[in-house]
Design a protein that fits this description.
Strand content: 15-25%
Oligomer: single chain
Number of helices: 8
Order of helices and strands: EHEHEHEHEEHEHEHEHE
Number of strands: 10
Low-confidence stretches: 102-110, 252-259
Largest sheet: 10 strands, mixed
Shape: globular
Strand order of the largest sheet: 3-2-1-4-5-10-9-6-7-8
Mean pLDDT: 86
Radius of gyration: 19 Å
């Protein structure tokens, strides 16, 4: 499933905790772990002399202690650009990043390195909060794939289904009827009926795709709410979901991860890891 994982590290306590989770993932899939440190061009953002080598050597030692093959590299430049470029250059299957690092902030913030990597990466990105309640464990047991019927959501669903088969996990499929936009529309009841029909169709189609891929247990649900991201988080908590797999854009037609999107809000507030998937180009 995953043969090459990329973990960019800045030596922060957040990255340190997530590294243990990355090692578990790589060990389960017998994958090579790529460890990358990017030294910023701005002197004020650079580490002390020798810190980068220390961070990498410590991470390599921990990975090799679990029997993993590793590749490590130091690059110089804008961190998010170098991370995206490395993922493209080396054909890694998955990038894993903490939602925050050396800034000490309690959650993902606009303009952070992680957010920019998610926006720019053509490779799936797994974001993990170092502050998540409870222990991070792998393999995951329950996956959630929200869908709005878009091509990108289906791309994410397929990856989530393949992962569920690979690690023998249950898959939940959820579509949320957003009623907030209908409050001032006199056609509200009729529009809600239409949205419900669409949502039912989306989860039925998703269920069929997941079953065809080979997922053993698929649970489908349609929820109503004034915030799609809030309904997804509520579903996560109610059903003990371990991972959310979501496309970085949906039916809006935008060709990249957009400010204010459902995926962005989940990255900032999800109580569990989020795997973001970008729609693949036609070629």
């Amino acid at each position: 499933m995953f043969d090459h994982l990329l973990f960019p590290t800045d030596g922060s306590s957040g990255a340190d905790r997530v590294l243990d989770h990355v090692v578990d993932i790589a060990t389960t899939h017998d994958a090579t772990l790529h460890l990358l440190y990017v030294s910023p061009d701005d002197p004020k953002r650079r580490p002390q002399a020798g810190d980068a080598e220390h961070f990498l050597s410590d991470a390599v030692a921990r990975a090799k202690g679990s029997g993993l093959d590793t590749v490590d590299e130091i690059r110089h430049g804008e961190p998010y650009e170098e991370i995206v470029a490395y993922a493209d250059d080396t054909d890694v299957d998955l990038v894993v990043m903490p939602t925050h690092g050396r800034t000490g902030l309690s959650r993902l913030v606009l303009g952070s390195t992680t957010e920019r990597v998610v926006r720019g990466s053509t490779v799936p990105v797994l974001t993990v909060s170092p502050d998540a309640d409870g222990d991070l464990s792998y393999p995951y047991e329950r996956l959630l794939s929200p869908t709005d019927g878009s091509t990108c959501a289906t791309t994410a669903l397929r990856l989530g289904s393949e992962l569920a088969v690979d690690i023998d996990a249950d898959l939940h499929v959820l579509s949320v009827v957003d009623v907030a936009t209908l409050a001032a529309d006199v056609r509200g009841p009729q529009l809600i009926d239409a949205l419900e029909e669409n949502a039912d169709r989306f989860v039925e189609e998703a269920d069929a795709i997941a079953t065809e891929i080979g997922v053993g247990s698929v649970t489908s649900a349609v929820e109503h709410g004034v915030s799609i991201s809030s309904e997804i988080r509520a579903y996560v908590e109610a059903h003990d979901i371990d991972l959310v797999v979501i496309g970085t854009h949906g039916r809006s037609g935008f060709d990249r991860f957009m400010l204010g999107s459902v995926a962005e809000k989940l990255l900032r507030r999800s109580p569990v890891p989020v795997l973001t998937v970008r729609e693949r180009d036609e070629d």
